[in-house]
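Bug report

Summary: structure tokens for Serine--tRNA ligase differ between web form and batch submission.
Environment: batch mode, default settings.
Steps: 1) Submit the sequence below via batch. 2) Compare with the web form result.

Sequence submitted:
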Amino acid sequence: MIDIKFLRENPDAVRENIKKKFQDKKLPLVDEVIKYDKKSRETQGEADELRASRNKLSKQIGVLMKEGKRDEAARVKEQVTANAARLADLEQKEKEYSKKVHDDMMLIPNIIDPSVPIGPDDSCNQEIEKFGEPKVPDYPIPYHTDIMESFDGIDLDAAGKVAGNGFYYLLGDIARLHSAVLAYARDFMINKGFTYCIPPYMIHGDVVNGVMSFEEMDAMMYKIEGEDLYLIGTSEHSMIGRYKDTLNNEEDLPFTMTSYSPCFRKEKGAHGIEERGVYRIHQFEKQEMVVICRPEEAWDWYNKLWSYTVELFRSMDIPVRTLECCSGDLADLKVKSCDVEAWSPRQKKYFEVGSCSNLGDAQARRLGIRIKRADGTKYFANTLNNTVVAPPRMLIAFLENNLNEDGSVSIPKVLQPYMGGTEKLIPKHKISK
């Protein structure tokens, strides 16, 4: 949600921003907000005058009664009664106008940073930088589930019977590798000075509305039937929600947190073969990083956050690149975002393994996360989030880039302590061709 004062003073800039995000259907919202915001303020002004008049007239009645001027007091009482009816009408209209303004403002996208490339969808995203040399070995790289099956490490058929498509059983060495990556990512972020957190895995609807747009919520979130609870699609939602309706001292900033959680997503729509297996699923686990800071610190943190993910993947011998998200690929609350993509030797291309976002003060404004300066003035915080690592999707990149010709998988030194000192995983049987 943008600042209503900004929209009042810069309606054309808000309209232009909507066009840059290719959401022209939302253009009428700007005029609606201006119209109902004006009505709301006019109504509030008249209501305030009536409240002040009520107090003045009430005192006048008391004086007239003491002076024995009952007829005059009665006429003033009639005026007070009439004013009360008008005030009740104004208060009801004020609520209606304010709600209309609020609801429209919730739909208007955040102002994107000038550096964001303009484009309608992810096909217009732009490569920023590559890290590590992408290689294609001279032996074939099997599909990731075939690699996992050679270690008896996955059972999709049983998961389908138990929970349906989009779920999985990870077993043995593959399950251990999955947990090892998460444990390593946790310690990696703790060593960067982040506070480790395990958040609630369900959140109330008002928190959902505070951290994401309605369209995103419908596409992603599972709702608990009969309750005001949603399963989280990513842990930054409950992490940001922790600070809902809080006033924090500026001297305590920044709040830097790294959180573990399972994540649950609807993942609507049909997907191709590369998104089968464990690429696009309804349940997965993730290590996340979240920062709440002053606005002037936000861009420094943005660059730190995505660089941490790059550093983590490179420490596991996985080449990656960063990709600037274009305007049409940005969620409504985001000011700027970049994806980290890992190299796939099998596909001979990169694929997304994480996303870093600066949301400005949009989430803080929706959730009421305020900061108090030493001089007592207050402002809304800036929030940022980034994926540290999200297995099992990350396992695809790990297995492909560390697979040897004999079917074994090398374990990088940084992961060996989390794998009981194991340096190499040995398959239980050959991959069927």
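Above is the batch result. After comparison, the two runs are identical; trailing whitespace caused the diff. Residues 270-274 have pLDDT under 50 and may be disordered. The two ends are 53 Å apart (CA to CA).
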